[in-house]
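Course assignment 3, question 2. Fill in each field.
Student: A.L.
Task: Predict the tertiary structure for the chain below.
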Amino acid sequence: MATVATILGLAALLSPTTAFPCGALRPDNTTASKLLGTWLYVAGAAQFPQHLLEMLLIDHGHLHVEPSAGAQELLITQRVAAGDQCLTNNSTYFHIAAGNATLVKHAKTHQTVGTLMNLSSEDLLLIQYQLQRERTYLGLYLYARNLSGIRAQREEFERHAKCLGLSEEETVYAPWKTELCQVKEIEKGNSPHAEPAAAVTPSPPPGTHQPGSAGNTPR
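Answer field:
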């Protein structure tokens, strides 16, 4: 279960992001302030089989972003509910530079890097990464300020996934069925409003992911 903690912080042994044809975010002097606050985990897509299996264990999660002493860094607290555990990670931050905005996760033996992608709404946050093994595996993670517009969020996410060549079978949506790591208070009055439970299809058990079902896909 401990390996699931890497999901919202991206996965281990990632190569630095290089070519992103689907539109990387180009920061300006307002980018840092727009990233502050709480972001709710909506969905993930991964070509690497282990990451896809781990996504099926996640019920919900969120990031909380706050300023740091460094002008170019924003500190991130990550929480994810998997099984009966609420896992927390504080070793991640956003790095905002003139040319790009990246998510960086430190571990004992490696550093993980993901790139923030350009989206149509300031209320959405999309992180793209590359994993270098015997081949290059791509992945995406989508976060939102709230879950009230889940259909529009899904459409935006699927457009980027398609651009990267990620399939529906490689996509899993978080069902948000429990309150294990739920956000109690979110800044500026935002709250994690989800659609009715009947609009969500529960995850299959690990190892039973079936083609075409796309995990916890909302309808």
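Instructor remarks: Strands lie at 37-46, 58-67, 73-82, 85-96, 101-106, 111-117, 124-132, 136-144, 171-173. The longest strand covers residues 85-96.
Grade: pending
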